[in-house]
Amino acid sequence: MDDEVESIEMKPASMRKTFTLRNKVARQAAVNFMPSRKMAYSTLRLRRVSSEHNALLEASMSDAPDAVEKQADIIVREMEQHHHLMEDNPLSEELRREALRDLPQGLTMKRNIRAKLSASVSLRSKRRPISMFKRMKYRISFTWKKSRDHFRDFIFSIELWYEAIRNIEGHLGSAVGSYFHLLRWLFGLNLMLSIFLISFIVVPQSLFDNGRNRTELKFVDFISGMGGLEDTLLFYGHYHDGIISTGPFQYNMPFAYFFTMVSLYLLFFAVLCYRTADSYRRNFIEPAGGGGGGSAVRAALATKLFCGWDFGVASPRAAALAARALYHEFRELLNEQNKKKEVSSIWTKIRQRLTNIVITAIVLGFIFGILYGLWLLLSVEDLTDNREIYISLIITAVTAVCPIMLHFIVKLEFYTARTALYVTLARTWLLDIGILMLLLVFWVQSDKSCWETSVGQEGYRLVALDVPVSLFLLPGIELIRGLLFHYKFIETPPEFNIAYNSLTLIYNQSVLWFGMMFSPLLVVAITLKFLLLFYVKRETALRACQTGKKVWRAAQTQTVLYALVALSLFSTLFALGSLFLRSSPACGAFGGYGRVYELLTEGALRLSQHSAVFAVLHFVTRPGPIAFVLVALCVAVYIARARAGAQRSMARLLRHMLRLQAKDKDFLLSAIEKVSNGEWLYSPKSEEYGADSHTWKYVNEVRKPSNAGYHFDGSRLSHSFLERPRSYVKENRPSSYVERQKSNEDGDTDSSFSWQGSSSYLNQNDVEKS
Amino acid sequence: MGQGKSQFTEEELQDYEDLTYFTKKEVLYAHQKFKALAPEKVGHNKNAKLPMAKILQYPELRVNPFRDRICKVFSSSNDGDCTFEDFLDMMSVFSDNAPKAVKAEHAFRIFDFDGDDMIGVSDLREVIERLCGPEMKLSDSEIQQLVQNVLEEADLDDDGALSFAEFEHIIDKSSDFCHSFRIRL
Lengths: 770, 185
What we know:
Number of helices of chain A: 29
Strand content of chain B: under 5%
Shape of chain B: elongated
Oligomer: heterodimer
Radius of gyration of chain A: 35 Å
Number of helices of chain B: 13
Largest interface: A-B, 83 and 81 residues
Helix content of chain A: over 70%
Domain TMC (chain A): 450-555
Strand order of the largest sheet of chain A: 1-2
Low-confidence stretches of chain B: 1-5
Membrane topology (chain A): Multi-pass membrane protein
Largest sheet of chain B: none
Number of strands of chain B: 0
Region (Disordered) (chain A): 728-770
Subcellular location (chain A): Membrane
Helix content of chain B: 55-70%
Organism (chain A): Euphydryas editha
Distance between the termini of chain B: 15 Å
Radius of gyration of chain B: 18 Å
Mean pLDDT of chain B: 83
Shape of chain A: globular
Low-confidence stretches of chain A: 1-20, 38-47, 56-64, 290-297, 705-770
Number of strands of chain A: 2
Distance between the termini of chain A: 22 Å
Strand content of chain A: under 5%
Mean pLDDT of chain A: 74
Structural class of chain A: mainly alpha
């Protein structure tokens, strides 16, 4: 809201071109003395106010030797107005530090100001003994700050692939960089997962295994994960279902397995949710806010102008490409504008909508067709020897090819470019997650004795078979295309397809979420894969690829990608919760329990021994209470929505009031100006204003002849105003007051109010915009 | 980094950490980068003033269409020559940690070529010409039309120029500004 206030209050300062700079500065100074300006809202305002003073200063004495000193003095005086900044305690010191850091000044100036400020603070401070509690508070906040700084320092020194990503951003722009950021983030996430899983699950089990002889392995086993690999650390079925005791230590394997998995799933779900929500707030809500009420400014071109250049670009070739891309975008925008706007009839609209619906239906049918086919394929037994491998191969092929197909299909539909991208992403994700769900469901309902291991093996095969595709095949194709381009066989170099590449990452991560429960070492495999993928992708990106021809808007897409990762984890949690928890395990770590959830109820809490707790829990988990909770949640959501709606309309109202107030202020300012120039009440002729202006209303309604005691030719006045063509008003706006006077010397000499000009501009403006 | 360390005392580093968005290690790293632009001169005097031509050898600045403006905005002597502190200032504003408002403030000054605290028609023309690069040229009328469009979109008070508030309004609406207005150290 503060910013809104500012943006409106700033308007009067620049209302007329006719103002000379001096006038403007003087007026701004007046505005700065308004009470609202004197309040300490934020450092932002503080900064701006002081920089306006700089403008004032620079106008008067630009090259004075002690200008720096004086400027510093002014800023210090501004800051001294803000009492919370000037107290002698660590909190306000920290605030001071932040305010200082946010000043748009050079370091020398900041240092100067800081010296003056601290002198002033120590002058003001009354040395009072502070209480124990306060001292504790300060000490804690100080330590917290220190450790945060140290942490940031540490993070910087271990930041992985810093130079590499910087290099990529320099060559291909920060959009491609964002893919590598996602890759690095997922790699870090999986690395942490691996560390936890290895230390809590794999290491104890391998200690327990120590001494058992191993079965021999065939090559096919490495691809299928069956045969010799089946009963190894890789899969759930292998894990011990009792207490491992080595010497004095006892380690309850089922508990370790269960609680490590559950806490990791929940922890990373929380992290992902937080990250997605944060990114959503920054990239969707904040840009949309502020202008929601009627005056939503869609400054597409201006955004392109001021945010179009990627300052991170460092190579001349990339810079030339970026310049060309911007050039084409500008041309495109102009062309679009110059083309006669086709009036799309309702029929074309209906046709487009229908096409979209039909194609979406076809695509959904296609996806479910694939899933059904897969189900049939899985159900067929004894096709060949290695049918599992073939099925996994088919799945890998489908997940590699379908995104490309969907990418082409979406071109048949009528979406904007960005929506088309999101639609493709959503469909691909649906296909991927559908396949994984299907595998899980198939194995759960199969009557195999140790189906958990089978699901783990499916995950293992998918990861193993995806390795050649994403590490060798796709980069190979890119490299070959790059070479062909290099030797001028083809016209266009391969583009780095951010969407497709990110989808591969998300697919891998989804497989990980699904397989982790049943195959702990899968996490390690995917971590290694991402590590290799980073280097492979870096090489192909730098050697073969170029930036896209379109300027890619990265920020919002990034949010969508995070959301997809979070969603796939959510669906995994859902599937595992509903299918796995109620199943009766026959093997593996939970083999000793009738149902998986009994591990919690019987094993950890020993509910059967506490009959009261058991009864309570039993009651709570019955459908009735759960339905009640659901209804309560729905009511809560409804209330939250209603409140949000009310607040939105309140915000709209307030914004409207602000705008009116700004107009009033402007009106008064110009009135005061006229008074001080001695033009009150008498001027040869008012300038243009329309029937919607306040002054017009004032003249015609409030001061109607019947109201006032003298004759006033309102009709003639309004006539002359309304008849004036709009174009004349807009183009021939006189550039100075004298000129305005001249242009109006058309014999019309009756007296009228002249203190309306400014607001009439504003009004006109609003009418044209709305 | 041992070499860099010897050139700064702990107090100086703390000072820089307080006044910029960098940590101590990052300050040292920035100094390395600065030193790489003119090893002898900076080795001699850690806060040496380098001429604009030298500063513009920094890869990101070399290809930036607004390179001379950036140097001028951050130069303490206003002529484009930068000391290490100016350079540090520049990098701090372009870093990830700088808030949007600070970035917007400096972006405004960079785009304000004639320095009248407003982005006027001539400034907009200059921005468009520079963005399109030296090879591709839009015709005069096309640029005129683009400028007109920008003003129609963003010039809320119809005075034919963008004030800081209007500029910030555009920036606030764009989720990409922080992504694009960034030079990693």
